[in-house]
UniProtKB/TrEMBL annotation:
GO MF, any single term: hydrolase activity
Protein name as catalogued: Metal-dependent hydrolase
Lineage of the species this protein comes from: Bacteria, Pseudomonadati, Pseudomonadota, Betaproteobacteria, Burkholderiales
The keyword Hydrolase belongs to this UniProt entry's keyword annotation: yes
Keywords: Hydrolase
Domain of life: Bacteria
Length: 68
Protein backbone atom coordinates (compact mmCIF):
# COMPACT_ATOMS: atom_id res chain seq x y z
CA UNK A 1 0.00 0.00 0.00
CA UNK A 2 2.75 2.45 0.89
CA UNK A 3 4.49 1.97 -2.46
CA UNK A 4 1.32 2.82 -4.37
CA UNK A 5 0.57 5.76 -2.07
CA UNK A 6 4.11 7.05 -2.60
CA UNK A 7 3.70 6.98 -6.37
CA UNK A 8 0.34 8.77 -6.25
CA UNK A 9 1.71 11.34 -3.82
CA UNK A 10 4.74 12.05 -6.00
CA UNK A 11 2.48 12.58 -9.03
CA UNK A 12 0.17 14.95 -7.13
CA UNK A 13 3.06 17.00 -5.75
CA UNK A 14 4.71 17.27 -9.16
CA UNK A 15 1.44 18.32 -10.83
CA UNK A 16 0.76 20.95 -8.16
CA UNK A 17 4.24 22.44 -8.50
CA UNK A 18 4.00 22.52 -12.29
CA UNK A 19 0.77 24.48 -11.88
CA UNK A 20 2.53 27.01 -9.65
CA UNK A 21 5.59 27.46 -11.90
CA UNK A 22 5.29 25.86 -15.35
CA UNK A 23 8.82 26.99 -16.27
CA UNK A 24 10.37 24.94 -13.45
CA UNK A 25 11.23 21.27 -13.77
CA UNK A 26 10.82 19.01 -10.73
CA UNK A 27 14.08 17.09 -10.37
CA UNK A 28 13.30 15.07 -7.25
CA UNK A 29 10.64 14.55 -4.60
CA UNK A 30 11.86 13.09 -1.29
CA UNK A 31 8.96 11.78 0.79
CA UNK A 32 8.55 10.30 4.27
CA UNK A 33 5.26 8.79 5.43
CA UNK A 34 3.94 9.69 8.86
CA UNK A 35 4.31 6.60 11.08
CA UNK A 36 0.74 6.72 12.41
CA UNK A 37 -0.88 7.62 9.08
CA UNK A 38 0.61 6.06 5.93
CA UNK A 39 -1.58 8.26 3.70
CA UNK A 40 0.09 11.44 5.01
CA UNK A 41 3.56 12.42 3.82
CA UNK A 42 6.20 15.04 4.55
CA UNK A 43 8.10 16.01 1.42
CA UNK A 44 10.98 18.08 0.07
CA UNK A 45 11.27 18.85 -3.64
CA UNK A 46 14.15 20.03 -5.80
CA UNK A 47 13.20 22.14 -8.82
CA UNK A 48 15.27 23.75 -11.56
CA UNK A 49 14.37 26.72 -13.71
CA UNK A 50 16.96 26.65 -16.47
CA UNK A 51 15.74 29.89 -18.09
CA UNK A 52 16.23 31.76 -14.81
CA UNK A 53 19.37 29.79 -13.92
CA UNK A 54 18.00 28.88 -10.50
CA UNK A 55 17.21 25.95 -8.24
CA UNK A 56 14.48 25.84 -5.60
CA UNK A 57 13.80 23.61 -2.60
CA UNK A 58 10.26 23.35 -1.25
CA UNK A 59 8.96 21.45 1.74
CA UNK A 60 5.47 20.58 2.76
CA UNK A 61 3.02 17.91 3.75
CA UNK A 62 0.49 15.98 1.70
CA UNK A 63 -2.54 13.93 2.65
CA UNK A 64 -3.91 11.50 0.09
CA UNK A 65 -7.16 11.29 2.07
CA UNK A 66 -7.68 14.68 3.76
CA UNK A 67 -11.26 13.86 4.74
CA UNK A 68 -10.13 11.00 7.02
Amino acid sequence: MQGAASSVGRQRITAALQGIDPAARVLDVAMTAYPAQPLCWAFVTVEANEAAGSYRLRRGSLSLAPAL
